[in-house]
C-alpha cells in the first residue's frame, strides 16, 4: 500500500496514509473526551444570538445552520476523505450518484456537453445518456483508450471530461495524465470516479485530475450497510479563467456570494455544498457518515487483503479449463496492465470472467460468446454459496453479479459492448474471506454452471 499521499487539509505532513485513515479530521471531543467521532444526529443548531445567525447565513462565520448544508459528523468524514485523496476539501453526498449529479449541477448548464469514456459504470452511463439530457446536457462518449477522440469531442461548450480509475466492469485504466493534459489544454477540468481504486490504491488528483468522486457505499465503508458518496476538490483548477460562473463570480442563487473568493481553498466543494446540498437535498446523513468513518479506519488493511485474494483468484481462474477468459488489471494479459502498474499501487479487488458455456468449443470467444455463456453466467451467480449474488461491490464478503442481465441490462447491446459488457461476463468483487474457501466456492459454482449449460 502506498504511503506517500500528499497531506490533506489540516493534517501534519508527516502523517502517512494508514495513520490518516484512522485520525484525519478528528480529535477527541474537547468537552467529553469521547474518543470515537460523536454522532451528531441533529437537524439544526441553536444560534448564539441574532447577529451570529445572520453572519452564518451570510457565510461570514464558522458554525452550523442546518444539517442539509453541513453537519459535524459528516464534516469529519469530508475532512478525512479530503485528506486521504490529497484534496483541498470535500463534500459528502447521499450516494455516489448524488455526487455525480452534484458535480454536473455545478459544472454544466443547458447547452453544455460532457466528454465521458465508455468504460464506465452502467448507472453513470445511463445518468449521462438518459437523465442529464433532461437538463439539455449532452454527453459525448469516447472510447476510453482513444485519446484523439477526447481531443475531437471537446469543444467550447464542454463542461468537463469524465473517466473512471478502473472502469466498471471492464477494469480498463486510462492514461490519466494524458487525458488531463488534453482536458487542460482546452480549459476544462478532469473529473474522475475513483470508486474501484479508492485512495488506498490511487489518488487521481496526483495525476492531473481536478475533481474526484466516489461511491462510499463500496470499499470506503466496506461492510455493505450504508449508501453514500463523496466529491473531493483538488483545489487548483482556475475556475474563474475558464468561465465557471457558479463557482467564480457572483452566484445569484446564493446571496451573490463568489465561492472562489470566499472559499479560495476548495471553491468547487463549497459551491456543491450550497447549491446541490442546500437546493437539491443531496446531503449524506450523519448516521451514514458515522458508519463510513468506522469503515475507513481499516481501509488500508482491507484493501491489501482484497488485492491479495483477488490475485489468487485471478490466477486460479486463468488456469481453469471451463473459464473462457479472465480480466484482472494485475494479469499481464490485461490490455491496460501497464497503465494500472503506473497509476495504482496494487490492482484492486475486482475481476471479470466468462464461462465456456454449453460446449466449450470456443475458448477465445470473448465478446462473441453465445447464449450459452449468458446462461452459464446466470447459473454461476445462482450457484455460489460463500459468495453472495447481489448488486454491490467492495464489501468484506465476496460478491458476484451477471451485468448483462442486471446492472447493464437497460443498455442497448451496442452500449453494452462499448462498456465492455459481453453477454457472458461475470463480475466478481473478491472479499477478505480465507482464499481457500473462496476458491472452493468458485470451483463448485463453475462446475454447476458448466454442467447445467452442457446438459440443457
Ligand atoms: C464505479 C461506480 N461509480 C458509482 C457508483 C454509484 O454509487 P452509489 O451506488 O453509491 O450511488 C457505482 C455503483 O455501483 C459504481 O460501481
What does this protein look like?
- There is one protein chain.
- The longest helix has 21 residues, at 299-319.
- The protein is globular, with a radius of gyration of 22 Å.
- Residues 1-10 and 358-369 have low confidence and may be disordered.
- With 456 residues, the chain is α/β, with parallel strands linked by helices.
- It has a seven-stranded mixed sheet with strand order 1-7-6-5-4-2-3, sandwiched between helices. Strands 8-9-12-11-10 form a five-stranded mixed sheet.
- It starts with 16 loop residues before the first helix and ends with a helix.
- It has 16 helices and twelve strands.
- The protein has two domains: 17-296, Type I PLP-dependent aspartate aminotransferase-like (Major domain) (Aspartate Aminotransferase, domain 2); 299-455, Aspartate Aminotransferase, domain 1 (Alpha-Beta Complex).
- Bound molecules: pyridoxal-5'-phosphate.
- Pyridoxal-5'-phosphate is lined by residues 95-97, 121, 123-124, 164, 168, 193, 195-196, 215, 217, 227, 229, 393.
Short description:
Residues 1-17 have a biased composition (Basic and acidic residues). This protein is of the alpha/beta class and 456 residues long.
The total tally of domains equals 2
Task: Give the total of beta strands.
Answer: 12
CATH structural fold name of the largest domain = Aspartate Aminotransferase, domain 2
- Going by helix content, strand content and strand pairing, the class is alpha/beta
Note poorly predicted spans.
Answer: 1-10, 358-369
- Whole-number mean pLDDT: 92
The radius of gyration over CA amounts to 22 Å
For the largest beta-sheet, the strand count, sense and barrel status come to: 7 strands, mixed
| Helical percentage | 25-40%
Amino acid at each position: 500500500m502506498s504511503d506517500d499521499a500528499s497531506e490533506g487539509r489540516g493534517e501534519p505532513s508527516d502523517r502517512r496514509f494508514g495513520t490518516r485513515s484512522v485520525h484525519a479530521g478528528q480529535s477527541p471531543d474537547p468537552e467529553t473526551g469521547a474518543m470515537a467521532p460523536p454522532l451528531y444526529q441533529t437537524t439544526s443548531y441553536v444560534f448564539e444570538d441574532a447577529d451570529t445567525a445572520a453572519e452564518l447565513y451570510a457565510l461570514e462565520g464558522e458554525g452550523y445552520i442546518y444539517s442539509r448544508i453541513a453537519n459535524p459528523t459528516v464534516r469529519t468524514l469530508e475532512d478525512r476523505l479530503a485528506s486521504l485523496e490529497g484534496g483541498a476539501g470535500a463534500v459528502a453526498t447521499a450516494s455516489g450518484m448524488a455526487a455525480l449529479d452534484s458535480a454536473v449541477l455545478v459544472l454544466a448548464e443547458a447547452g453544455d456537453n460532457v466528454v465521458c469514456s465508455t468504460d464506465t459504470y452502467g448507472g453513470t452511463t445511463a445518468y449521462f445518456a438518459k437523465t442529464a439530457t433532461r437538463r439539455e446536457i449532452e454527453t459525448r462518449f469516447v472510447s476510453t483508450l482513444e485519446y484523439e477522440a477526447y481531443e475531437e469531442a471537446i469543444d467550447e461548450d464542454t463542461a468537463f471530461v469524465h473517466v473512471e480509475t478502473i472502469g466498471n466492469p471492464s477494469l480498463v485504466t486510462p492514461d490519466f495524465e494524458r487525458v488531463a493534459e488534453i482536458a487542460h489544454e482546452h480549459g476544462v477540468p478532469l473529473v474522475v470516479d475513483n470508486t474501484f481504486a479508492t485512495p488506498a490504491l490511487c489518488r487521481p488528483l496526483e495525476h492531473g485530475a481536478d475533481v474526484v468522486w466516489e461511491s462510499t457505499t463500496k470499499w470506503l465503508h466496506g461492510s455493505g450497510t450504508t449508501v453514500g458518496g463523496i466529491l473531493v476538490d483538488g483545489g487548483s483548477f482556475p475556475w474563474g479563467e475558464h468561465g465557471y460562473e457558479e463557482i467564480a463570480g457572483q452566484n445569484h442563487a446564493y446571496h451573490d456570494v463568489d465561492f472562489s473568493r470566499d472559499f479560495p481553498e476548495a471553491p468547487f466543494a463549497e459551491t456543491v455544498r450550497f447549491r446541490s446540498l442546500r437546493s437539491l437535498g443531496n446531503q449524506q446523513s450523519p448516521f451514514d457518515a458515522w458508519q463510513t468513518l468506522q469503515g475507513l479506519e481499516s481501509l488500508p488493511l482491507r484493501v491489501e487483503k482484497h488485492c491479495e485474494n483477488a490475485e489468487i483468484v485471478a490466477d486460479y481462474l486463468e488456469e481453469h479449463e471451463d473459464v473462457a477468459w479472465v480480466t484482472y488489471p494485475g494479469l499481464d494479459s490485461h490490455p491496460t496492465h501497464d497503465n494500472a502498474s503506473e497509476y495504482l499501487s496494487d490492482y484492486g479487488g475486482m475481476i471479470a470472467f466468462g464461462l465456456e458455456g454449453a460446449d466449450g468449443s470456443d475458448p477465445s470467444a470473448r465478446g462473441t460468446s453465445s447464449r450459452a455463456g449468458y446462461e452459464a453466467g446466470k447459473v454461476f451467480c445462482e450457484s455460489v454459496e460463500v459468495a453472495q449474488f447481489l448488486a454491490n461491490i467492495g464489501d468484506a464478503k465476496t460478491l458476484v453479479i451477471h451485468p448483462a442481465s442486471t446492472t447493464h441490462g437497460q443498455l442497448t447491446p451496442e452500449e453494452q459492448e462499448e462498456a465492455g459488457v459481453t453477454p457472458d461476463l461475470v463480475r466478481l468483487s473478491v472479499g477478505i474471506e480465507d482464499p481457500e474457501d473462496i476458491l472452493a466456492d468458485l470451483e463448485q459454482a463453475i462446475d454447476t454452471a458448466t454442467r447445467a449449460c452442457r446438459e440443457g
